[in-house]
Amino acid sequence: MAILSDLGTEILVPACAIVGIVFSVVQWILVSRVKLSPERHSLSNSSKNGTAEYLIEEEEGLNDHSVVHKCAEIQNAISEGATSFLYTEYQYVGIFMVAFAILIFVFLGSVEGFSTKSQPCSYNKGEMCKPALANAIFSTISFLLGGLTSLLSGFLGMKIATYANARTTLEARKGVGKAFITAFRSGAVMGFLLAANGLLVLYIAINLFKIYYGDDWEGLFEAITGYGLGGSSIALFGRVGGGIYTKAADVGADLVGKVERGIPEDDPRNPAVIADNVGDNVGDIAGMGADLFGSYAESSCAALVVSSISSFGINHDMTAMFYPLIISSIGILVCLITTLFATDFFEIKAVKEIEPALKKQLIISTILMTAGIAFVSWIALPSSFTIFNFGSQKVVKNWQLFLCVGAGLWAGLIIGFVTEYYTSNTYSPVQDVADSCRTGAATNVIFGLALGYKSVIIPIFAIAVSIFVSFSFAAMYGIAVAALGMLSTIATGLAIDAYGPISDNAGGIAEMAGMSHRIRERTDALDAAGNTTAAIGKGFAIGSAALVSLALFGAFVSRAAISTVDVLTPKVFIGLLVGAMLPYWFSAMTMKSVGSAALKMVEEVRRQFNTIPGLMEGTAKPDYATCVKISTDASIKEMIPPGALVMLTPLIVGTLLGVETLAGVLAGSLVSGVQVMLNVVVRCVLQNRPLINSIFSEPGFKIQLSKKQDSGFFRFIVITTITTFLLFGFQIFLK
Amino acid sequence: MAILSDLGTEILVPACAIVGIVFSVVQWILVSRVKLSPERHSLSNSSKNGTAEYLIEEEEGLNDHSVVHKCAEIQNAISEGATSFLYTEYQYVGIFMVAFAILIFVFLGSVEGFSTKSQPCSYNKGEMCKPALANAIFSTISFLLGGLTSLLSGFLGMKIATYANARTTLEARKGVGKAFITAFRSGAVMGFLLAANGLLVLYIAINLFKIYYGDDWEGLFEAITGYGLGGSSIALFGRVGGGIYTKAADVGADLVGKVERGIPEDDPRNPAVIADNVGDNVGDIAGMGADLFGSYAESSCAALVVSSISSFGINHDMTAMFYPLIISSIGILVCLITTLFATDFFEIKAVKEIEPALKKQLIISTILMTAGIAFVSWIALPSSFTIFNFGSQKVVKNWQLFLCVGAGLWAGLIIGFVTEYYTSNTYSPVQDVADSCRTGAATNVIFGLALGYKSVIIPIFAIAVSIFVSFSFAAMYGIAVAALGMLSTIATGLAIDAYGPISDNAGGIAEMAGMSHRIRERTDALDAAGNTTAAIGKGFAIGSAALVSLALFGAFVSRAAISTVDVLTPKVFIGLLVGAMLPYWFSAMTMKSVGSAALKMVEEVRRQFNTIPGLMEGTAKPDYATCVKISTDASIKEMIPPGALVMLTPLIVGTLLGVETLAGVLAGSLVSGVQVMLNVVVRCVLQNRPLINSIFSEPGFKIQLSKKQDSGFFRFIVITTITTFLLFGFQIFLK
């Protein structure tokens, strides 16, 4: 048996989750110390000895009072826009969730005709398991729990982001280091809330369900998989809806404002400027959070359900059973320490220190986590045990499981760094692309496309190696814990990711409030580092999605009682071919949606510039609300067809062509989706940044890393929606 | 037994091939009637009653003598450039072919220690087969034969194309119909020469080899597969080398000439203009020919080798054995009749009739061919027979084989028409993209990308259905004959394809010779139709490549004695993942090559404009030869790394990771390659045409279908090289 007792596990997991929540509340309090009310702030400030520093950096000739007031006003508009969008989105998502919950209940309950009698277990032969009706009820509950947790985490993340953006702007007056800490702390609030909430709710749900299920662990953990499906459902809509919103607003604002009218980015005269800033929060914060939460919940559930039919579950070894949760718990502690390196142990003094500081976060968390995993594998696992492997039981050692989780963790780091290498202006790829622009846009397009394709190579090898290692050691359980390993540092990953849009917003607020160029330069520097590190975050999201999808694929195959998926049979092969096409189809839909929404936005912005007198002169205010409404309506409407494709494909293929073809479709869309995603993430960063610049502003052309729109306006939507596609497509057929 | 006797087959196949060759010679003679020497032409012209027509269309105010002289001079320069490039290319390819031939010989011969003793057959147990040494010798010979036939066909195609371009220009003075017929006849020369040569050489080789092999058909047809490998090898280098050449010259000429200097396309002052026109001939004519020849030879060989170990081969039923060759023979006759519809039965009078006429070619040939296949399947096959299917024999009826071939044929037509739908300006996709340009390049990029992705959907379903039908009926043999069905109308397909670059060249010559705008408008109209139909041709190339690759995949799996390729094993799965990445890697290499070569070209053209006095004023002649040399050197040098990737991947993966992983790699690159290719073909047509226009010329922007460079400068290289990749990657491990 394991070194860690069951009681120890029962204490450790919730304790770590609560530590995470407390830590994020502390961060929130620290951020809230930056006051948005000018009078009190000046008072408290002058009463301390920080006055000198403050005055040095103060606005030149501008009235401090009115600037702070303006910032508060703009922040308010953004926050209101984001809240109202999320409420609208949640209404539709709520209807969907309820309908889907009913469907799950009816579908699962009808298996045994809603009987309340116990039945023989499907894996643990000879034992009696709880009735299908119970499974239906508890699956439905965990589905709703997963959805609600995701919604709550996304919503809180959006709240802190819209709370922190103006504060980051104000702190930028004191120095780049102060602004960085404010933005990063706010990102950390989001990261820790999500990781800790996800873990805590899952833990509580398992313990509550156990009151009913008792010794029927097989039934218990099967019901728990609803939690993952709930998370994925929200991810699907959060990503697609939020993605369409943010990109439509972004393109609309830039095309008319910057290109046609020649006014700066984030200029308050631009009617779409509020919608644009709202978009960063609903897409990049709430959407990204929902996405990673989905992967996290899915991989935990996939590992747990395999555990329950392996020796852990059969022997009722609770500590080993909770191995996936313990890893996540330790992950929270590791990320906590890592965060202190950015906010407390070191201080950022110059712009060029920002990107290395963010990169250091990844390295530190990975190294600490490796030790953490080793420790957990040693104390929480028996030295030898068996893992369910497509019908048979496979003997696994604890060090092998350590290697599985470690392979996932380090593959994540490699993917992150390769993505960074290809998208950062400090290395040759971006410099080469910039160089190719000497001869114009055409050679630039070729070079950008080539690099985008090239960037796929190493990440694919990294994923392949981690799959090979974890699959060889512990079959599908290995894959699931490898995904968990990659996601174990999710709190840090999300902090880095959320930091980007917050800095972006801060820059926008500085511009709109009419603050000096020096402030804008600082926020731009923060934002530039955020753009590159955001690409790293996307690399993580893709890698973990690939692993999770594979684990779910394994679960699907086991459940469908398929013993081989043979490429040499026509059914599987055409499935593979059609499946490989699906990511393209899905992307076509989402991009068309962005295009249509952007068209409407452009027309509205043009209309306002043409019909509102005094708008260009700054004497009249634009109608921000209409633009917000256009983005909201378009994204709500347009998220339906891609959502339907993802949900209906497995149902239609499975029903019409059978499970073998479906297995082929799932495998095909998995391998092709990963390529499409990785390719798009780098190519769009590389290509749009210079290309769009060269189209819009200056034919002579110079890479400007600090401009927001450069980082690719469809990158976001394509990658993240495909991630969701993969996850959701697998899950839906499992239920 | 079949209705057609063995003697009948022995007569039918070579007769059809010879008819094809004679027909193409006749076409060549008809083209040569257009004289390039002005004096004689005027004389012969005034002596007939065609004078009136001729004079009406004659150049306004320009000296006829000097115009014709100039055309001849330009044609000469293009022809010389193309010939010299092909000679250089063939030198390198020749060295490679010899080295590779030696390798094949040593590799195959050493299997049995170069023994000259007969050995038991591997499939036809109990019989004695010829020694491995014989197999090595004859495989090597057929490899070289395949390579030589491909080279010869490509070279002759280039010759007729450079012979016909100026003649098309001159005929354009008489009317668009005359010019069309000249260009189309020249395309037909290429198409028929290739199809007939390929068939005839293969037929002769089989009959000569049979003198030695006698009754050992298993050994005979195994040796014959070298023919396919030879064709694929040339395709690899022809496509990559020619593709890099043409696109580097194209981008270089347009970027400096059109964009920076504002001179028209094909202006004689542009130093890269000859290189550009040479590129069309070496890339789109010689390269395309080699590519389709590769597919054609591979599918014939794949079908023959499966036949030889099926009941046809075991029972020595020669007519049934030659079923693949008989289909190709009938295909030549069908294409012959089809060609007459374009050149003799109807006459084109207006510009808008060109595209429908080309489309009609496809429809007519497909309908006639369907009847042809039915007839062949009835007379050449027994009503019931067995086909080798991964170790067992499967019973197949003759009508089932008809359906296999027909499925391939019609899938080709569907793919062609979908490609046309997405790339022609008469339908909504292109119009939508054009419409999206109202709001600027950004929305245009989004819409173009979305449509490119969308265009993949229907072709993938068409391929999937034909795979399912043919695989279910006749296993891998079914797939091979489905590919042959798609390629049975290759003569017509190639005629349409080659017609494009010839018209393109004709326009260039009109511009360079200083002919009037009316002539240029006519050649532009021819070229525009050619661009869209060229996209159709590429659809065919991709579809047939997918089928052929699958057939080769089947052959590989049989040979490697793998019974299942199970996606659920880690070895296969990581193979799938890595394989799906390879097309991206390969594309990255080829595009980087194009980019580097284009950079050099741009610099050279700029240098000439800056240093040669009087160049812009038209008083000094540019140094065409240096530009031709840059393209030649770059493409020769740059074709090595992608070639190495294709050839080394199967060897390295197979040696290090074993055959299961290799099977996964091959399947992965097959399914992913097809998507990448189809996506790129449409997207680039859609996107560059408007996008590059919008970058280069007019921000207000209007779709101009008649401009050459618009049709996508990397479309070509990506698709076609991947096609080759698929074919070659499979073949190399088989030998």
Automatic annotation (TrEMBL), chains A, B:
GO MF: diphosphate hydrolysis-driven proton transmembrane transporter activity; inorganic diphosphate phosphatase activity
Provenance organism: Vitis rotundifolia
Protein name, as recorded: H(+)-exporting diphosphatase
Subcellular location: Endomembrane system
TM ranges: 12-31, 92-111, 131-158, 179-206, 321-342, 362-380, 400-423, 444-469, 475-496, 540-562, 568-586, 712-734
EC number: 7.1.3.1
Pfam family for this entry, one: H_PPase
Membrane topology, from the record: Multi-pass membrane protein
Main location: membrane
Coiled-coil annotated spans: none
GO CC terms, sorted: endomembrane system; membrane
Keywords assigned: Ion transport, Magnesium, Membrane, Translocase, Transmembrane, Transmembrane helix, Transport
